[in-house]
Specification:
Elements lengths: L1 H27 L6 H10 L7 H7 L7 H20 L9 E4 L4 E5 L3 E6 L10 E7 L15 H15 L6 H29 L2 E2 L4 E2 L1 E7 L3 E6 L2
Antiparallel strand pairs: 1-2, 2-3, 3-4, 5-6, 7-8
């Protein structure tokens, strides 16, 4: 009986101490003082540990002077020229123009891309600034572009991903993907023109000038003439 009573007292004491520590002493403890912050302010007169996101929202960013902008663009242009010298440029790029901080590559009647470099480390991939499709339907009076905005956005992301591929030449890889898309687009335009010509007959003989035999998007178009 004595040992049981002593054991019960030990258990009760432990439970009481646990309750006091978790419930009562929690609010009675001292807070953690910001000693590092106080030392910075008292010694240096400023606080350098402020998160940059707060600084960016409150303190306006410094603007570059015209001379600094010109020097930066000239340096960027020099980096682009060096990068092009070390790159394999496909012969399809007939027009290569280096302008204000970017290079403009054009395949006539197909597409134009604008590229730049993020820094002077040539291991970093090119950055795609814009992609414009030059394919047009000469027989269509509709001023709207031949591709939708969603298609252009998707293709831009796809081309940028090809620039990140380290196993292939980035400019050549970009050209192959964009060229294949433009060929598919040209074939689609030709197919739409062929559908319009299906209903054209020769004089009064009711003989159709053109027949669409087969069409597979992005692959082939088979027609017969004077069929």
């Amino acid at each position: 009986m004595f040992l049981d009573k002593q054991s019960a007292l030990f258990v009760e004491t432990a439970d009481s101490l646990f309750t006091i520590a978790k419930e009562r002493l929690r609010n009675a403890s001292f807070p953690v003082f910001g000693l590092q912050s106080a030392v910075d302010v008292l010694v240096t007169g400023s606080y350098s540990r402020l998160p940059l996101c707060i600084k960016d929202k409150i303190i306006p960013s410094l603007t570059l002077t015209d001379k600094e902008k010109t020097d930066t663009l000239n340096k960027l242009t020099s980096l682009i020229e060096q990068r092009l010298v070390l790159s394999k440029i496909p012969i399809k790029y007939k027009n290569i123009e280096i302008e204000q901080g970017y290079v403009k590559l054009t395949v006539p009647h197909e597409f134009t891309v604008r590229l730049t470099v993020p820094n002077d480390d040539f291991k970093n991939p090119w950055r795609l600034l814009s992609f414009d499709v030059l394919v047009q339907n000469p027989k269509d009076d509709d001023p709207r572009p031949v591709i939708h905005l969603q298609q252009k956005e998707y293709l831009t992301e796809l081309l940028q991903s090809r620039l990140f591929d380290p196993d292939q030449e980035p400019l050549e890889n970009l050209c192959v993907v964009a060229h294949q898309f433009c060929l598919s687009l040209q074939l689609e335009i030709l197919y739409q023109q062929a559908l319009k010509m299906k209903n054209v007959t020769w004089n009064t003989s009711r003989v159709k000038m053109l027949q669409v035999i087969d069409y597979l998007a992005g692959d082939r178009l088979t027609v017969s003439y004077w069929g």
